Amino acid sequence: MGLDFVGQGAGETDGNIITTTIDKVVNWGRKNSLWPMPFGTACCAIEMMATLASKFDLSRFGSEAIRFSPRQSDLLIVSGRISIKMMPVLKRIYDQMPDPKWVISMGACASCGGVFDTYTLIQGVDQFIPVDVYIPGCPPRPEDLIDAVLQVQQKIASGAAPKGVEVVYE
Amino acid sequence: MNEEKDVEEQPKPLVLEKLEAHHSDALLAQDEARGSVVLVVRKDQAYAVLEYLKTDPELAYTYLVDVTAVDNSQMESELMQFDYARFMVVYHLYSYQGQGRVRVKVPVHENDLRITSVTGLWQGANWLERETYDMFGIDFEGHPDLRRILMPDDFEGHPLRKDYPLRGRGERESFNFDKQNV
């Protein structure tokens, strides 16, 4: 986390003062308090619910506060098939989320259309919204979703920008 | 041995008996599939037959299970059977009075896709007929609100028709993002 203990010799402050950077503290807070916005449209959503329930318990990783309001969330979990009629809805929800925001594309359908190579199904939501972590599987197990959340946490902790943010170097 | 005997002794279904007595000129063909009677009915009398099936007190097919259609354009044998009618509108009915299920098929020609809506008989036909219109382009006359139900409003074509390409005509990439009602 980049914490450094200050103080060498004997004294009252010895080991009691910690220095760090604002970015690291903020990222540490962000990564441990992700508020997911679920976008469940198919069987992947059932696995997502199982992930949130007591057996797998996503709250162990600080992500149990599921927000059905995109304006109060920072992690979009796209779990299921997205049709050409649903994609504008998903895009609007993504646009409503405040920055910084991360996106998990859960399962084969959201990531590439899965077996549904048909006229009505989006062949991968990353054509329209930026995706940070993809999960393979049809549907993936809850452990896979937990792993994806942990990867998002790693990404946040590393200070890397979300996929949806254009970084401008001055 | 016993099975054969059983088949022979099965009585004629009541629905066939009554229809042959009252609407014999409407029946184009009849069949039996998986224990339910299959009737092929002339389009101009389809509404009258369905109304009779529903309102007759002995038959009382009061439950409309499904309305759908079949595109036979790539089934030469089916096409020839009913004067090259491309579509077959299918009604599934169920009787709670013990008459079981009946399937009513109505041949519809491609150059005249109109057929009388049964929303006057069953309110539940509303969305089923909208779906059939959306997927096959069947024009249900007298329907209170005949517009697309599954595909987006600005969608062109009817995707369950056999000549519609499975992967579409590029709408996966070029659909309208700026929906007013989203």
Low-confidence stretches of chain A: none
CATH superfamily of chain B: NADH:ubiquinone oxidoreductase Nqo5 subunit
Give the class of chain A from helix and strand content and strand pairing. alpha/beta
CATH architecture of chain B: 2-Layer Sandwich
**Backbone shape of chain A:** elongated
**Roughly what is the average pLDDT of chain A, rounded to an integer?**
86
Rg result of chain B: 19 Å
Distance between the amino and carboxyl termini of chain B: 64 Å
Q: Biggest sheet of chain A, strands in spatial order?
A: 3-4-5-6
Number of strands of chain A: 6
Quick one: which chains have the greatest interface?
Answer: A-B, 15 and 19 residues
- DSSP E strands of chain B, number: 7
Q: What name does the CATH topology of chain B carry?
A: Beta Polymerase, domain 2
Query: What number of domains of chain A?
Result: 2
Topology, element by element:
The complex is a heterodimer of chains A (170) and B (182).
Chain A (H helix, E strand, L loop, with lengths): L3 E3 L10 E3 L2 H10 L4 E5 L2 H10 L22 E5 L7 H10 L5 E5 H6 L20 E3 L6 H16 L13
Chain B lengths: L1 H8 L4 H9 L4 E7 L2 E6 L4 H10 L7 E9 L4 H6 L5 E9 L4 E9 L5 E3 L8 H12 L2 E3 L29 H4 L8
Parallel strand pairs in B: 2-5, 6-7
Antiparallel strand pairs in B: 1-2, 3-4, 4-5
